[in-house]
Amino acid sequence: MDFEDTLWTVLGAGLVLLMLVDVFRTLLYPHGSGPLGRAIMRGFWLVSRKLRGRGSFIAAPLAMAAVIGTWAGLAAIGWALLYLPHLTDGFVYGAGVPLRADFAEALYISMVTLSTVGFGDIVAADPLLRLVVALQAVAGFGLLTATVTWILQTFPALNRRRALAHQLNLFKEAAGPAGVLAMDSGHAAGLLEAIAGSMATVTIDLLAFHETYYFREIEQRGSLPATVAYAQELASQAQRSKSPELQFAGRMLHAALDGLAEVLRGKFGHSGATSSDVFDSYELHHRHLRGGKPDTN
């Protein structure tokens, strides 16, 4: 191969490697996210903060689609660049298929292989190329199943977060202004421990499914940023009670809230010396304030 062919090969291999690294870090690496996926999600998030109305709420789903499209695009273009130096000598063309050696032809071969369609009109002849084509077909099938799994894992995590917000709202409506202090201490302690467990689960979801942070909630009732302050209030009430059992439950909930605040501070850039400050920033960024008024930033 001459210098130009070597350049296309190196560039194609680099694009394929970039795709594989991003997919691995996003879907397989615990508590991680790929650089491309993270940048795309954050980019759509920043744009959504400037939008008003329902447009801001579809930014995260569109960002996930953009991430998947980027992975597929990198794979298709990367393998096309690997095939380009070997057109047309490295392939066998079916009857009536014109012999072309341009990038469009290489991209066609790459997309047909990546989608595992395999029309058979153009087939690799060189043994090494045949291996590369087979690897791309396997990667295409793996990318399809991985992205479907990613979507199926993301929405249950979102539902757990919404369920926790609804649980806090129901508690607030049922308990009234007195909160846990108006209830039987044993029963209240059990409820707070359950909320602490749900809070810990949501925190783990944010670590494992980084993209769920960027989903906005249309209704404040299902928004954790809008209701997390009430969980802090419950923890403080419980710690002021005279019941050791309720005090322990309050400490559990307080620890769970501190864990969530630490993730928001460390992974998503929320500033604040205390957990309350971090949660105020969390509410502001998701346009849910305690007064129910959206921010104007």
UniProtKB/TrEMBL annotation:
<feature type="domain" description="Potassium channel">
    <location>
        <begin position="99"/>
        <end position="153"/>
    </location>
</feature>
<dbReference type="InterPro" id="IPR013099">
    <property type="entry name" value="K_chnl_dom"/>
</dbReference>
<feature type="transmembrane region" description="Helical">
    <location>
        <begin position="103"/>
        <end position="124"/>
    </location>
</feature>
<feature type="transmembrane region" description="Helical">
    <location>
        <begin position="57"/>
        <end position="83"/>
    </location>
</feature>
<feature type="transmembrane region" description="Helical">
    <location>
        <begin position="6"/>
        <end position="28"/>
    </location>
</feature>
<feature type="transmembrane region" description="Helical">
    <location>
        <begin position="131"/>
        <end position="152"/>
    </location>
</feature>
<keyword id="KW-0472">Membrane</keyword>
<dbReference type="Pfam" id="PF07885">
    <property type="entry name" value="Ion_trans_2"/>
</dbReference>
<keyword id="KW-0812">Transmembrane</keyword>
<keyword id="KW-1133">Transmembrane helix</keyword>
<protein>
    <submittedName>
        <fullName>Ion channel</fullName>
    </submittedName>
</protein>
